[in-house]
Specification:
By secondary structure, the chain is an alpha/beta fold. Helix content is 34%, strand content 21%. The protein is globular, with a radius of gyration of 23 Å. It starts with a helix and ends with a helix.
């Protein structure tokens, strides 16, 4: 090869390399959002592994007199300082307030009923994160346009007002961004079931949101023992809900996959089954039971294949459960195996990441360690 041909060959290689560099976008790592509760008292930051989280959602801020309201300002203010201290360990950690929740959603519908009310609610929400130097607002309205806890106010107008609420909060966050020069986040926790989409405009609402955290847990049945946080349908019973069904429905409604965050349960839900129950999954429910309504650390260390409980895996649903043949107790939960399947689903479908409820339910961090391993 003469010198001219050598130069041409080198030029071609360099051009291809530069073009590849231009088109090779950096891979965005999935988010790991942990809900941390403040209503149970002061938070011990030493018990939170900040390096394994991207976001903490502080649960909860109340809705009172049409405003976002700190129900215990002294406690919450101290908790905000403690959570912010975690940034010494993980400077990129984002701290958000989560407004609402199951018990504090009764006033959302009233608080966002008119344009002026929405503006006031938005300002009160952002004023909290401004005062406490936090990073964003998460809305956990359970539920717009449909019943949640008994006595909650809901109305047909919620469908549009839900979207308009996010629009107003986003405006206030934009103002705060200009003041600080830092990105401020707006996220929401939503029902992990298809009917939630009938009462909202999620495709439109998503334009104002950074992440949509699907609560793909607490799937409820009054008659048949079912998984409460299954990834796919089970063949053991007719399936109404699964994370896969919810995610596909949200994408079909116009929510970008990259904004969808899948929920993981760090706790179990337990049931007492009829005396003739012999397999657990698919058997008839006698009543709810709360004797083992504890987190995964307890389930793994104290119950799985202990005290008469046998641990099973539903391969179709990618969901585990415990069943006690003697006491007829059934417990549905997430374990490392199911969490890994959920994380792989997130990666394969290019979703935003995962979130979990809630941090203190797995004190030994079995599931958080699995999330870290799966996303590594």
């Amino acid at each position: 090869m003469n010198k001219i041909n050598q130069l041409l060959a080198l030029f071609t290689i360099a051009t291809v390399f530069i073009a590849a560099k231009r088109t090779d976008k950096p891979v965005k790592k999935p988010v790991v959002i942990g809900y941390v509760t403040g209503y149970s008292g002061l938070i011990n930051p030493e018990q939170i592994n900040a390096e394994k989280l991207t976001h903490i959602n502080y649960a909860f801020v109340n809705v009172k007199n049409n405003q976002a309201y700190l129900d215990n300002a002294k406690r919450d203010s101290t908790n905000f300082v403690r959570l912010n201290s975690l940034k010494l360990k993980n400077p990129s950690l984002q701290i958000l307030i989560s407004i609402g929740g199951w018990s504090w959603s009764e006033n959302f519908s009233d608080a966002v009923l008119t344009d002026s009310l929405r503006k006031g609610f938005a300002k009160s929400s952002v004023d909290i994160i401004r005062k406490h130097q936090l990073d964003g607002v998460d809305i956990d309205w359970e539920y717009p346009g449909m019943p949640g806890e008994a006595g909650n106010v809901y109305r047909p107008e919620d469908k549009q007002n839900y979207t308009l609420m996010f629009k107003e909060i986003r405006k206030e966050l934009d103002i705060f961004e200009k003041e600080t020069g830092k990105k401020k986040l707006l996220t929401t926790a939503t029902g992990g079931f298809v009917s939630f989409l009938n009462n909202t405009e999620m495709g439109e609402a998503a334009k104002y949101l950074d992440y949509v955290n699907l609560m793909t847990y607490d799937y409820y049945s009054s008659k048949t023992a079912k998984h409460h946080t299954n990834l796919f349908d089970s063949k053991a019973y007719p399936s109404d809900n699964s994370a896969d069904k919810a995610i596909k429905a949200y994408i079909a409604s116009g929510v970008p996959a990259s904004k969808i965050v899948m929920g993981i349960a760090f706790y179990g839900r337990n049931l007492k089954l009829n005396t003739n129950a012999n397999k657990g999954i698919g058997d008839t429910i006698l009543s709810s039971a709360n004797s083992y309504g504890k987190g995964y650390t307890f389930l793994k260390d104290s119950l799985a294949n202990k005290k008469g409980f046998t641990a099973y895996k539903d391969e179709d649903a990618k969901a585990p459960y415990l069943f006690n043949q003697q006491t007829k107790e059934f417990i549905s939960y997430d374990d490392e195996w199911s969490v890994d399947h959920k994380c792989q689903y997130v990666l394969q479908n290019k979703l935003g990441g995962v979130m979990f409820w809630e941090y203190s339910s797995d004190k030994k961090e079995y599931l958080l360690n699995q999330i870290t391993k799966s996303f590594r």
